[in-house]
Specification:
Belongs to the allantoicase family. Keywords: Hydrolase, Purine metabolism. The chain has helices at residues 14-21, 126-131, 338-351, and strands at 34-38, 62-63, 66-67, 72-73, 83-101, 112-118, 135-142, 148-152, 158-167, 171-172, 174-181, 191-193, 202-206, 230-231, 241-259, 270-276, 290-297, 303-307, 313-322, 326-327, 329-336. It is mainly beta and 361 residues long. It has two domains: 14-181, Jelly Rolls; 187-343, Jelly Rolls. It is globular.
Length: 361
Amino acid sequence: MSGRPEPAAGRTDPADLADLAALPDLASRAFGGGVVVANDEFFAAADNLVDPLPPTFSPRTFAAKGQVYDGWETRRRREPGADHAVVRLGLPGVVRLLVVDTSFFTGNYPPFAAVDGCAVDGYPGPDELARARWVPLLGRSPLAGDSRNVFPVDVPHHVTHVRLTIFPDGGVARLRVHGDVVPDPRLLPDVLDLAATEHGGRVQACSDRFYGAPQNLLAPGPARVMGEGWETARRRDDGNDWVLVRLGVPGVAHFVDLDTSHFKGNAPGRATLRAADERLGDLDDPAAWFPLLPETRLRPDTRHRFPVDAPRAATHVRLDIFPDGGMARLRVTGRVDAAGRDALAARWRRTRPPAADPTGG
């Protein structure tokens, strides 16, 4: 086992697993994740591991090397050893949950897998990563075929790359690396989207997520279809729906974007946006909240941008939509405050693996 930790599967409540699975997939191609190197990709490319879409399968679809698989598949080993693929995370962060998805791999899945992580600055290539010091995230653990194999992770360090090792060979459809984003403070501009997932923004609570995950609001780029936004069920009462966002970096908002793109017959009629600074008071106190945007009419399928009339520092924002409906994106553009940047720098240092070498050596 080479000192690797034992897998934690089976010791976590299913509700906790669901919460962890709602964290961003740090490895996803949607955030810029990619495969740096794989020792073997004979049957199917390792790039498929980070595809944000669910894996698919078309039976009896053959190419020159056999059945086509939507995943990474290596050849059958005829000597001792293991296969591996190294993934550059699109977002550096602390890994909380790993999913080794073997969907559609039945007689050709690997019986065991392990995952390690490292923190290396810059954009290292295969040779530099081979010299890096890797931290075990998941010990050699059994896998089931045609299944989402889920493993909680309890390692407090942020990583920039992960290495999936399969024993001895076989196919894996997807690798999901859910975790808390820890952005490198040295790479943050003065003006940015304070709420963006890539800057550490996170949905802390919401009233309803029937049709779409609220974390989609903070995703990079414009939504391509309605399904890439947040949409609630139809309300049959006199209430309204809402979402609470912890900003990735505390700061002062100057512009907000409420984007209803693709929502035509189901856009909210109106919305408000409020903010609060938890460093100054309890978020449960209504007096802690101040308006960024008063109640404002929204149009369907429209990217709305509004200036903030009275900018103030905040750590959280709350979007209320009336009465229900769907939103594609929420942007909170502003300046990071000095205390927030200092706190982020301290977190980056605190979570860096002790053995990590900034040069990768």
